[in-house]
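INTERNAL AUDIT FORM
Audit reference: QA-55
Scope: verify that the stored structure record matches its stored sequence.
Auditor: D.O.
Record contents follow.
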Amino acid sequence: MRPPVSRSAFFMPLASLLGLLAAPPVQAWPVDLAVNLEAGKERFHKLTVVDWVEVEDPSIATAEIFQESKELMLTGVKPGRTLLLLYAEGKFAVWRLAVGAPGQPVEIEPVAGPLAAARKACPGLKATEGAERSLTAEVKDARCREALRAVLKTDAYLARELDLTFELALLQEQLTTLTPALKALGLKASYRGAGLLLEGTTTPEGHRQALWELFRQSVGRVPLEDRVEVKRPAPPDAGTPPPTP
């Protein structure tokens, strides 16, 4: 049963989560969607399907799923920015949650400096802002990749507004940086054709941590095939019940 909605809350229908993940279905910087919240108020989103969600910093915002109505309730806790990980049917998305003070608009992060640095590091980079914003670049070295990461962490662009082309060697290098963290979770990633294959066995917590790592440590997108076997720990043994008198 859904809790009462405060007067400050409002309902906003969205396309299904799978629609957001349609192409391509592996996430890296930047986010898929940016949502502005106000501290102390709720905001509802309608999703067709979602298995679970996780907020990076719940001291800034919280998220709760109501499976019966397929609604996602986001609540601003205090001013700041955090990320929301959403997972459904082997695919995941990441949203940015920006929380403003009561009655105050959310401040936009400056992008002029990072974008100027990215233009120098990535020859041929094309970027437009405003209503029809887009960013196109060929990523040929680590310097360009890290400059782009700084841009994509700001509010400047969403995932659907990017067109990045990577050198194969640079993708391999990016995968190498992910390997130790994934190995510690019992997982491994490898390129399978044009996509990334994630496989192994881990706990639900390990699976979520792996998805966060894929997002935080990567720039650019390739299709993800999630073959991770998630094993939940066995419930504690309550012992043998006493015989019925």
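Auditor finding: record pair retrieved intact. The helical segments are 17-20, 112-121, 142-152, 168-184, 204-216.
Action required: none
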